[in-house]
Amino acid sequence: MDQLYGNVALGLSTALSLNNLFYCFVGVFLGTVVGVIPGLGALAAISMLFPITFHLDATAALIMLAGIWYGTSYGGNTASILLNIPGTPANAVTCLDGYPMTKQGRGGVALLMTTVASFVGGTIGIILMMLFAPTIAAYALSFGSADYFALMVLGLVAASTISDGSAMKGLAMVVLGIAFGCVGMDIYSGGQRFTFGWLELADGISLVALAMGLFGVSEIIVGIRNVSANAIDRSSVTLRAMKPTKDDWRRSIGPMARGTGIGSFFGTLPGTGPSVAAFMAYAVEKRVAKDRSRFGKGAIEGIMAPESANNSADQTSFIPTLALGIPGSPTMALMLGALIIHGIAPGPQLMTEQASLFWGLIMSFWIGNLLLVVLNVPLIGLWVRLLLIPYHLLYPAVLMFICIGVYTVNNNPFDVWLVVFFGGLGYVMRLLDLPTAPLLLGFVLGPLMEEHFRRAMLISRGNLMTFIERPISGTVLAVTGLILIWSAWAAYAVYRRERRLQAAEA
């Protein structure tokens, strides 16, 4: 414990230096702004600002880049809640209940509560890093491809419960999402799949383009058809209307705790990250809810769980990156690149050989999260008042930002056409009452599931029993089987109840 106190003191002395404080503020401020603009995301912002880090010392460079990374999660929920346009892919699931809260005149409440959820999730993630970074890193390293595959299967089964309505529709959308995820170059053979000869699809479909189209452009099309429904009651943007009720706080405690736990777990696993954590947290929250019909209609639990999950995952994703030298995402790979450029080798020895950098970075997370609360809470009233801008002025500007944001990710104009395609698809899905969230999760998890399945088959030389023989994968698959059995039994029970009611009425 004395060693921990000494490390904390060392980290605070590093993070509180004027130079590092300045770059921490710059990072979280830019992250918030980038998160609010639909389509940009942390990867685009960090890529554009990465050359600046060449002229900074390693600690200041990492503090600034990390601030952008977790700052986008705070800013990303703004567009998700107010406009039904995910600021980042990790915020897409927040649209499901955040936007209905806005239409109910509770957009300010949703923004304030997600700021609290983000702070709580980030704080607990930081505590886990401080206390258990080496242990968690070793535990994450023990996960093999078979274990990852089992987790992905569990996630896809849970995906069918994300939206209300027919479970078959949910599963069908999961399959469609997996099909879209298969587009591009095969990771093992290098052959092109489902590209129809278009070189632009060789790298696959952009997740940002898909999310922006399904949620953002489709919402704009719906709004154009029904402009009168978008009128905002001015009384809903007063300070009193933005105050959460006691029931809001009571309903939020459990989801924040569960979401933080899920996010912390998935954040430590290389290759998963905040997007997977947010969708998993939402699916779990809907499973444990007593009244699932509230979800998708403005349930406070539907925004608290995913927002706390993606922010805790943002923090714990640094554990495999710094302690193992294994980046779990392209963004984390840039963080790793910043270290290597400055001549610092990531790995288990980083915590001892570069103690000032490691603990200074962790302590900067505390400072950055506090700065984000200070920045975001006063701005809630401003963001909500954006809804008072006339529809014919607001949404063309939003559409412009979507196109700019999607284009800047890969500097590829083809991605803009993809946004148009998925916007049309999202609108058709709305007309047919097909859920969009399972499609998005299938798109995220499907390629990961395929990759780990094929890798597990290569390692085991084609032995399917490897998924059952490994303790972690065997347990997860057993839980998945129980969920399927329970779901089938529940559906059968509902069917029998309806038959009895029909017989009684007859």
Q: Could you list some keywords that capture this structure?
A:
transmembrane helix; 506 residues; two-stranded antiparallel sheet; 73% helix; mainly alpha
Give structural notes.
By secondary structure, this protein is an all-alpha fold. Helix content is 73%, strand content 1%. The protein has 21 helices and 2 strands. It has helices spanning 2-15, 18-36, 41-49, 58-83, 95-103, 107-141, 145-159, 167-181, 207-225, 246-267, 274-288, 301-316, 318-324, 330-341, 350-353, 355-385, 391-410, 414-431, 437-459, 466-469, 471-505; strands spanning 184-185, 192-193. Strands 1-2 form a two-stranded antiparallel ribbon. Strand 1 (184-185) and strand 2 form a beta hairpin. Helix 10 packs across helix 11 (274-288). The longest helix is centred in the N-terminal third of the chain and has 35 residues, at 107-141.
In brief:
With 506 residues, the protein is an all-alpha fold.
Question: Can you lay out the helices and strands and say which pair or pack?
Answer:
Layout: H1 2-15, H2 18-36, H3 41-49, H4 58-83, H5 95-103, H6 107-141, H7 145-159, H8 167-181, E1 184-185, E2 192-193, H9 207-225, H10 246-267, H11 274-288, H12 301-316, H13 318-324, H14 330-341, H15 350-353, H16 355-385, H17 391-410, H18 414-431, H19 437-459, H20 466-469, H21 471-505
Antiparallel strand pairs: 1-2
Helix pairs in contact: 1-16, 2-4, 2-16, 3-4, 4-5, 4-6, 4-12, 4-14, 4-16, 5-6, 6-10, 6-12, 6-13, 6-16, 7-19, 7-21, 8-19, 9-17, 9-18, 10-11, 10-12, 11-12, 17-18
